[in-house]
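FW: tagging you since you asked about this chain on Friday. Here's the raw sequence from the shared folder, copied in full. Didn't touch anything.
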Amino acid sequence: KWRRLGNSLYLRLLMRVSGKAEVSAQVIAKLKEMVDTSPTEYPIMQNNTHTAKILWNGTNSSSAVFSSPFMINVRPVDFRTPAITKFFMENLTTWGDPRIDLKYGGNNVGRWGIASGPGGFIGVPSGYAAGSSVEKQAYFRSDAQVTNSITLQTDRFTGIIMNAAEVDFILAEAAAKGYINTTGEDYYYKGMANAVNYWLPALFASPTDPAVKAYAVAADIDWDNSFPLNSTTQGTSSKMGLIHLQKYYAMFLVDFQQWFEYRRTGYPLIPKGSGLENGGRMPARLNYPLISQATNPTSYKNAVAAQGTDDINTLVWWQKP
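HL: got it, structure written out here
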């Protein structure tokens, strides 16, 4: 499993820098070697038994060893207060996604523990204008709100380091771009199955279960080889759009990976409201902490001189062509 994790992280990093002109040829060659030429030399995550995670104890104790940090560091009222975005909720409801379907949870609580509002599973628009009248509806339930049900505040499985579905979508992208010798379709459906089955292990019998494709067809998110690789137009399908929309949900709770992949690809196509700051631009990086600037000024100045202004819009190395 350690080799699988290491090689899977390698795939993540290779894809992360694949757009850099100075290393692109080496990246593609290594991807071909790992996947097409010598796969036995590079074992990778194939299913959810290979997913790397910290398994929490699943209790509502705030002091026991391996209690979830959502339980230790977050008050129940603070856990359930933030609203969920319209983009996040609208896709899940449109697809009839089993991760929010009440029948797949327990005691009328879905697997992800999302509570609906008076209008249903309704989210708030991203970047709504200041002063707008926006009603919070859908939110994540806190542990204190439920009895004999699972919420993400105490869920054992939220400590994800890297999951098998992410690997599937990396390979789907590599295939769609012609980096490896296959189409993206099989990896796309495999990623969908592994993403759902991580939370609901018995839902799909296997990644090749016909129910996976049937679900995708019914939700209108099925693969089509005639789609273009890219499209920046809302409502226009593309292979990268399909892959990264599903990858976005597969990487839910996987540290900052959704942000990293959005910065790399521009996907998924997230609506931008008029209330967004920074000119509506997604920040490219974080500022260096003040303590680093104060205690290590020489290295800080050298880093800024090498990479550019210490500003949230300064592109990191792999974002530059």
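FW: The chain has twelve helices and four strands.
HL: agreed, and Residues 287-319 form one domain.
FW: great, closing this out.
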